[in-house]
Specification:
Elements: H1 2-42, H2 46-81, H3 84-104, H4 110-130, E1 133-135, E2 148-154, E3 165-170, E4 173-175, E5 178-181, E6 183-188
Parallel strand pairs: 2-6
Antiparallel strand pairs: 1-4, 3-6, 4-5
Helix pairs in contact: 3-4
Length: 189
């Protein structure tokens, strides 16, 4: 009996020692199952990810396409109305020319006509300069193919004018320091 009691106590101790391990293992297994099930429920499947990325791509593409169309439209509107400011200022000069033409029919004094045309020319030139137009000074300057267009070569009247501009046939112009019309010049050789 004493032996049976000792065996029962050993079995009880072993079972007591085993039971906490089993309980720990069961708790860990349940935790893993819970983690896996929550991971599965919050992590979308591959098909759902592809659909989400495709949707995001389509929205981004549409947004970019709308931006491109809008900027192109704005650019066209800007080009169409860019000259409006210049034309508005030139209309005033046109009005001056029309008044001068009407008054020239009645005036017999040639000097008054010359003065009137000179005033209109001055006003026109000041209007263009206010918009950034600047006349190129080419005469007696060294020939520069980036600024001048040589239309003729003539013998230089002096050695100092060799390779330089002797005459302006058509003046060149800058618009905000950018050449918009090259000067047509005669170069001395």
């Amino acid at each position: 009996m004493a032996e049976e009691n000792e065996q029962n106590e050993r079995l009880n101790e072993e079972s007591a020692a085993v039971e906490p391990q089993d309980v720990n293992e069961q708790a860990e297994a349940e935790t893993e199952n819970t983690d896996n099930s929550s991971a599965n429920s919050s992590t979308p499947s591959a098909e759902e990810q592809i659909a989400a990325l495709n949707d995001k791509y389509l929205r981004l593409y549409s947004e970019f396409d709308n931006y491109r169309k809008r900027t192109n439209k704005e650019k066209l509107e800007l080009i169409a109305t860019a000259s409006a400011g210049v034309l508005k200022d030139l209309i005033v000069v046109l009005d001056d020319f029309e008044r001068a033409i009407l008054n020239n029919e009645k005036v017999e004094d040639i000097q008054a006509i010359k003065d009137g045309v000179a005033l209109i020319h001055s006003k026109f030139k000041m209007t263009l300069e206010a918009k950034g137009l600047k006349q190129m000074q080419s005469k007696n300057e060294a020939f520069d193919p980036e600024l001048h267009e040589a239309i003729a070569n003539v013998p230089a009247p002096s050695d100092a004018l060799k390779g330089k501009v002797v005459d302006d046939v058509e003046k060149g112009y800058y618009l905000n320091d950018k050449v918009i019309r090259y000067a047509k010049v005669v170069v001395g050789q």
